[in-house]
Design a protein that fits this description.
142 residues, alpha+beta, ATP Synthase, domain 1, 2 domains, 5-stranded mixed β-sheet, 5-stranded antiparallel β-sheet, globular
């Protein structure tokens, strides 16, 4: 079933990853999985590291798949979606061994950081992000 297209922009700190019309945005926020269709209520959400799927309009409904490492999602009053992501790249570039190496590195940083410090807080965030990226790899392979 075709859905009404709406404008979606995906921006990273280094530039524009996607800009155009989509039928659906599917991703994960801190509250859980979310799917956005045309006419969605306005919202602002914090993105978790996860797969980002953009379903394009037209016959066959091509789906562009990306890995997002976190960020923010806004659905505006006019129904457009804006994703400001910390980093994102095509799912084909996902490297599970690199994600596992980041996870080990984050674990080491967390072990070395003194509790209650800014270093500990940042190491905890890095560990959660690395864990989520490893889980994404398990989901993609499973």
């Amino acid at each position: 079933m075709a859905h009404t297209p709406f404008r979606t922009d995906v921006l990273t700190p280094t530039g524009e990853l996607f800009a155009g019309e989509v039928q659906q945005v599917s991703t994960r926020t801190v509250e859980g999985e979310i799917g956005i269709l045309a006419g969605h209520q306005p919202l602002l959400g914090r993105l978790e590291p996860a797969e980002l799927r953009l379903t394009l309009p037209g016959e066959g409904a091509e789906v562009k798949r990306f890995v997002q490492t976190g960020g923010y999602l806004q659905v505006s009053q006019d129904g457009n979606a804006l994703l400001l992501v910390d980093d994102a790249y095509p799912i084909e570039q996902y490297d599970r061994s690199a994600a596992e190496a980041q996870q080990r590195e984050a674990e080491e940083r967390l072990e070395k950081a003194d509790k209650g410090t800014e270093a500990h807080r940042l190491a905890t965030i890095a560990k959660r992000r690395a864990d989520a990226l490893v889980r994404l790899g398990e989901k993609l392979q499973g």
